[in-house]
Specification:
By secondary structure, this protein is an alpha/beta fold. The strands form 5 sheets. The chain has a 7-stranded mixed β-sheet with strand order 3-2-4-9-11-10-16, with helices on both faces. It has a 5-stranded mixed β-sheet with strand order 13-15-14-17-18, sandwiched between helices. The chain is globular. It starts with a helix and ends with a helix.
């Protein structure tokens, strides 16, 4: 633990030394969490079309408020902007991601928060029921089409009225539980209502219902292309991505390569406060769908911020990387929390006389290959670092881009990838630590890539 704290201090000192602000040491400190919160606040104040929806974003003041790693990114926004612009949703990513996509097509600018991007797999493929599909039951209609639009009290009352007055096969569905007046209870009642219908009525109902299968990929990413540029989908999908701490295999996946594979989406992966604030504001203002992959372990980390970063119109351009630490011997390319690991490794290698240039990708799609190529032409060595799996990963894409360019001939050694281990994330703390790239792994990789040059650099340092 003592070694880790010293390495973290060295990395933070390195970052401050190469900050874009000349007054970095005297600058204000801001956590990544507060940077995201301020970005959301300012963009909602700037544009009334911007609204936030997701699980626990409103009345609870942010997800996992009482967790040992609290997020509370949306803290205070519900009290300031109200129910119409900060919306709590049920635990159904396939539902509220579809609502957000439709709202974007209609001209709004939704920010759709996933409690974790591991749950976004539900939203990749989900069904929405068209508004005009209100299947009749007797002389009444079930409010399927309007359920996502009507005020909570309105559609709960409608469902309660149906369940109390209409008999289905001589069975009356249970009354609405007033102690749980939420969307999950309403959804439960609809399921009960449908299950107790006679089979022939249920078949008739299904024939009259029209389903529209909508996807984050098929709706948000492809609509602009499929409409010949007539329909923009200005939506932001954001939330924590990648490994957290002690949440095992199903909650520790990195989705950078997943979403970056899809044309039509822009994918960004912020590391520090500057990235989080600038990239989120740029994503909200962008006319295209943007996936913002945050890191839960970075939320509470504070970084120095200058007056330029605190400006209301401060933006980080999507598609542009940042050199976090210049160097002449080796290039390390990373994104999100892997940037921290790279900076720590660079600080260790500096003691051996090896100057490492650390590049923070910031944007996964589009990828700033120009910055990478320019650095490789200078250092002639390249290591990619990511916490995701190795196969078809971000590092693999960078390797392919270098191979296909004349920059390949500038390399003095093969490109080395430092990635997460190619297994599901283990739950045990010790195994979890070894399943992700560590500082010793990067130092070892750098020494292998540099070969004899590493020894010469060490001699020169002495």
């Amino acid at each position: 633990m003592m070694l880790r704290s010293r390495l973290i201090q060295a990395a933070q000192a390195a970052q401050r030394a190469f900050s874009t602000s000349p007054k970095a040491l005297a600058a204000k400190q801001m956590t990544v969490r507060d940077a995201l919160n301020s970005a959301l606040d300012e963009e909602m104040a700037r544009d009334e079309r911007v609204f936030l929806l997701g699980e626990e974003v409103a009345q609870y003041d942010g997800a996992y408020k009482r967790c040992f790693l609290p997020r509370i990114v949306s803290r205070g926004l519900w009290k300031k902007y109200g129910d119409k612009r900060v919306i709590d949703t049920p635990i159904t990513e396939m539902g509220f991601a579809g609502i957000a996509t439709g709202a974007a097509m209609a001209g709004l600018r939704p920010v759709c928060e996933f409690m974790t991007f591991n749950f976004s797999m539900q939203a990749i493929d989900h069904a929405r029921i068209r508004e005009n599909a209100k299947p009749p039951v007797g002389d009444r209609q079930l409010p399927f089409g309007r359920i996502i639009e009507s005020p909570r009290s309105t559609w709960i009352n409608e469902i309660n009225d149906i369940l109390h007055r209409e008999r289905v096969g001589e069975v009356i569905a249970p009354p609405l539980d007033k102690s749980k007046p939420d969307k999950m209870e309403a959804a439960r009642l609809i399921v009960i209502r449908r299950r107790k219908m006679k089979k022939h009525k249920l078949k008739k109902l299904r024939r009259k219902m029209k389903f529209e299968w909508a996807k984050v990929i098929n709706s948000a990413a492809k609509t602009f292309y499929m409409s010949a540029g007539a329909v923009n989908v200005p939506i932001v999908f954001r939330g924590p991505n990648g490994a957290a701490s002690g949440v095992a295999a199903q909650h520790s996946q990195c989705f950078a390569a997943w979403y970056a594979h899809c044309p039509g989406l822009k994918v960004v992966s912020p590391y520090d406060t500057e990235d989080a604030r600038g990239l989120l504001k740029a994503a909200i203002r962008d006319p295209d769908p943007v996936v913002v992959l945050e890191n839960e372990l970075m939320y509470g980390t504070a970084f120095p911020v200058g007056e330029d970063i605190l400006d209301k119109d401060f933006l980080v351009p999507i598609g542009k990387a940042k050199i976090m630490r210049p160097g002449k011997d080796l290039t390390m390319v990373a994104h999100s929390k892997a940037v921290e690991t790279s900076l720590l490794a660079a600080a260790e290698l500096a003691k051996k006389g090896i100057e490492v240039e650390v590049i923070n990708l910031r944007s996964i799609r589009p990828l700033d290959v120009a910055t990478i190529f320019a650095s490789v032409k200078k250092t002639h060595h390249l290591i990619t670092v990511e916490n995701g799996w190795p196969q078809h990963g971000v590092g693999a894409e960078i390797c392919a881009r270098v191979m296909e360019d004349k920059t390949f001939f500038e390399l003095d050694a093969p490109v080395w990838r430092c990635t997460g281990v190619d297994v599901p994330m283990p739950y045990a703390k010790t195994l979890e630590a070894h399943a992700l790239p560590r500082v010793p792994d990067l130092v070892e990789a750098a020494l292998k890539v540099l070969g004899s040059k590493a020894g010469k650099a060490a001699v020169a340092a002495k």
